[in-house]
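#struct-help
A.M.: can someone run this one for me? Single chain, 148 residues.
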Amino acid sequence: MDPRHTALLVDLNLRSPAVHRYFGFEPEHGVEDVLSKAARVEDALFNPGVEGLLVLPARASCTNSSELLGCQEMNRLILEMKQRYSSRVIIFDLPPVLEAEDGIACADYYDAGLLVITDGVTAGVDIERIAHLLGRKPMLGSVFNNVL
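D.P.: on it. Structure tokens below:
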């Protein structure tokens, strides 16, 4: 909520993109188009009507998500976002760590993680396994999801 900072939410859940749906938006271009050079970052960004927030959506499900996230274009995109938006907090929405290797493949791109735990689904052993997989990556905390 600090007005000196803005946020960029990037949907890197390329296996099941959904961030745009939360805002009732159907993107013409997505991060996968930026990575394949079919669109520029500026073409894919949208403002969901929340002050200080921009979204870089993923448009469609990709079967080769790990390869896309590990490609040289992804490195270029991350560097561009960090340089262009130096005062902006960049948030990556990634698939569950234990369901896809994408979160591990992107570990070099983010400074810290936030663990989303689904009530009644995520077991303690899963949390320990995630901690082991992420190694020394700092964790900001956790969010309990679907708590009734």
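A.M.: thanks! The mean pLDDT is 89.
D.P.: also worth noting: The radius of gyration is 15 Å.
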